[in-house]
Design brief:
The chain has seven helices and seven strands; from the N terminus they run βαβαβαβαβαβααβ. It has about 240 residues and is α/β, with parallel strands linked by helices. The chain has a seven-stranded parallel sheet, sandwiched between helices. Helix 1 links the parallel strand 1 and strand 2. It is globular. The termini are far apart. The relative contact order is 0.14.
Length: about 240
């Protein structure tokens, strides 16, 4: 990854931070995106060798395009994109309103497409690159109180496959689906998921980052693929 320019959305904390740290450790030149978490983004950037930070509200397509343009101008190119930024809420499906649906889909799916599009326009003018979209176990398993979230992440999986076909052979597009990756105190629901996981434990941000790194470093002959980092939970 030496000198490869990689943009990580939502790279300030949690899984995004783990991915950024792993990429930096491999020599990548990072662009760390944040929306409201500026302090956390700058702290992560400092840990990544004073990486560059870029602010954008991913609900606004104009801001997405402007951010990617700023990244390309700052570094002179763009070699990789990790679409990590996401939202998560819980609702009885009968109580989901339009605003609740849009709150999730505007970031989890719409922004993923337009971030991919903006990055691909830069990559296709150069030597190509790699895109990794972070989906979720919720894309593979139905969760009754998270129908809107599961739909958004399932959309990311299909979007990944479509774009892999559209932009081959210059750009590989793959997805990583994390399982139970807790960063805060676990609740009863999370503990049930952990108990049901064949690996008999929760995962870590570092393990998700390892899968992202695999796709970022791999041949572009590997494209349109999904790796579940879930300890085997999606098998049940």
């Amino acid at each position: 990854m030496n000198d490869k320019v990689i943009l990580v959305t939502g790279g300030a904390k949690r899984i995004g931070r783990s991915i950024a740290l792993a990429l930096a450790a491999e020599g990548a030149r990072l662009a760390i995106h944040y929306n409201g978490s500026e302090a956390e983004a700058r702290a992560t950037a400092a840990e990544c060798g004073n990486a560059a930070v870029f602010q954008a509200n991913l609900e606004d397509v104009g801001q997405i395009r402007a951010m990617v343009d700023r990244v390309a101008h700052h570094f002179g190119r763009l070699d990789g994109l990790v679409n990590n930024a996401a939202r998560f809420t819980k609702f009885d499906p009968l109580k989901i309103e339009e605003k609740d649906w849009d709150f999730i889909h505007n970031v989890n799916l719409k922004s993923v497409f337009f971030s991919c599009q903006a990055a691909a326009r830069v990559m296709l003018e150069g030597d190509g690159g790699h895109i990794v979209n972070i989906s979720s176990l919720g894309a593979l398993r139905p969760w009754q109180e998270h129908a809107h979230y599961c739909a958004s992440k399932a959309g990311v999986v299909m979007l990944t496959k479509c774009l892999a076909k559209a932009w081959a052979p210059k750009i590989s597009v793959n997805t990583v689906a994390p399982g139970v990756i807790p960063f805060d105190k676990t609740d009863e629901r999370i503990e049930r998921f952990i108990a049901a996981t064949p690996a008999r434990r929760a995962g870590s941000g570092d393990e998700v980052a390892e899968a992202v790194m695999f796709f970022m470093k791999s041949t572009r002959f590997i494209t349109g693929q999904l790796v579940a980092v879930d300890g085997g939970l999606s098998l049940k």
